[in-house]
């Protein structure tokens, strides 16, 4: 079994970004989650965790534990931008990237000729040198073990779990470490006498299936270090479009240009949100008599910015002879790819 699965988990991601960007926060207990008494902690720096502060904790409780901490509202746009920069590093090695959140992802590097351990170390080093952030990285032959490995030695950890050592590592662990085992399943397992992963591995599979149904089969396999889930990149939308029906029918080109620009901005915003770009723009029109017309234009490069989408849409509109009023106009960006996918570089 090849060690082709890498799990990258950024350390205290939101708080680390704030500490990086403001030298006054270095070494201080930083809690992200806002200042409202009803808020919850999104991320706590490792300095804050020493006082018992953790994610999902009510802010009011965090303040009791760590009254001297620095409490900040989250800057989601900044965190998304940094997350995208991290993914750009991933895509230098593989296009099989499965983000779990802004701060973690699985990578399958089986198509890369380089040694996976070397790749993992390079990714970790690039994140540190380019973004001044640390990541904990796990390498193994399946997703369960790779994620488990990244949890060892945090922060700034690095661990490999090989097929030869997998059972020695996981057997002594509590059953809660198994993927998909939440508090309710954990309670059921322990009621049946399964406390450690080894207990499940040496137990009766049929008993687990009777207890947990289909999940029992999954839990039994995981206890034997078997996980056949593939690294699955998120599927892309086929197209992104917006349209508007007018309050009054019109063929005034100035009015239509105004609508077209507004729609182009909305399409651009959605393309950015979905991290895609396209090279075909489709203009849709509906006349006052409900007759529909569409025209498209493809170019040899990818676009996602408002001005580029509008420019193609307007060129299509300008070619038409509008001899009757319109009741609707729409614009769509299609022929999409992920914005940051580059040709695989076997560095």
TrEMBL record:
It holds the Pfam family IMS. Binds 2 magnesium ions per subunit. Its main location: cytoplasm. It is found in: Cytoplasm. The keyword Metal-binding applies. Its EC number is 2.7.7.7. The keyword Transcription does not apply. One of its GO terms (biological process) is SOS response. GO terms for cellular component: cytosol. Keywords: Cytoplasm, DNA damage, DNA repair, DNA replication, DNA-binding, DNA-directed DNA polymerase, Magnesium, Metal-binding, Mutator protein, Nucleotidyltransferase, Transferase. It catalyses: DNA(n) + a 2'-deoxyribonucleoside 5'-triphosphate = DNA(n+1) + diphosphate. Its cofactor is Mg(2+). It comes from the Bacteria. It is an enzyme of class 2 (transferase). The record marks 14 as: Substrate discrimination. The active site is at residue 104. Residues 5-182 form the UmuC domain. InterPro entries: DNA/RNA_pol_sf, DNA_pol_Y-fam_lit_finger_sf, DNA_pol_Y-fam_little_finger, DNA_polymerase-Y, DNApol_IV, Rev_trsase/Diguanyl_cyclase, UmuC. Poorly processive, error-prone DNA polymerase involved in untargeted mutagenesis. Copies undamaged DNA at stalled replication forks, which arise in vivo from mismatched or misaligned primer ends. These misaligned primers can be extended by PolIV. Exhibits no 3'-5' exonuclease (proofreading) activity. May be involved in translesional synthesis, in conjunction with the beta clamp from PolIII. Monomer. This is DNA polymerase IV. It comes from Orenia marismortui. The gene is dinB.
């Amino acid at each position: 079994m090849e060690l082709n699965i890498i799990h990258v988990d950024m350390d205290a991601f939101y708080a680390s970004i704030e500490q990086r960007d403001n030298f006054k926060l270095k070494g201080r207990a930083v809690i992200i989650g806002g200042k409202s008494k009803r808020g919850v902690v999104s991320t706590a720096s490792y300095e804050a965790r020493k006082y018992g502060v953790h994610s999902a904790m009510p802010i009011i409780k965090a303040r009791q534990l760590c009254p001297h901490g620095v409490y900040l509202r989250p800057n989601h746009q900044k965190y998304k931008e940094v997350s995208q920069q991290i993914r750009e590093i991933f895509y230098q090695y593989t296009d099989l990237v499965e983000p779990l959140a802004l701060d973690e992802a699985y990578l399958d590097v089986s198509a890369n000729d380089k040694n996976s351990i070397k790749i993992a170390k390079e990714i970790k080093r690039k994140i540190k040198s380019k973004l001044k952030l640390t990541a904990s990285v796990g390498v193994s032959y399946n997703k369960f073990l790779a994620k488990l490995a990244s949890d060892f030695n945090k922060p700034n950890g690095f661990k490999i779990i090989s097929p030869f050592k997998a059972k020695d590592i996981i057997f002594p662990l509590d059953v809660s470490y198994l993927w998909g085992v939440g508090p309710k399943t954990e309670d059921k397992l322990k009621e049946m006498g399964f406390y450690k992963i080894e207990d499940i591995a040496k137990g009766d599979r049929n008993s687990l299936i009777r207890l947990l149904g289909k999940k029992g089969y999954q839990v039994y396999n995981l206890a034997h270090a078997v996980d056949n889930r593939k690294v699955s990149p998120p599927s892309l939308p086929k197209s992104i479009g917006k349209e508007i029906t007018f309050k009054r029918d019109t063929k005034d080109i100035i009015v239509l240009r105004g609508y077209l620009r507004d729609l182009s901005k909305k399409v651009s915003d959605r393309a950015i949100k979905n991290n895609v770009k396209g090279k075909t723009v489709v203009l849709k029109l509906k006349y006052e008599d409900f007759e529909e017309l569409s025209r498209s234009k493809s170019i040899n490069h990818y676009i996602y910015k408002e001005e580029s989408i509008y420019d193609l849409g307007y060129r299509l509109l300008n070619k038409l002879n509008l001899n009757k009023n319109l009741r609707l106009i729409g614009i769509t960006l299609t022929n999409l790819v992920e914005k940051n996918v580059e040709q695989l570089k076997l560095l």
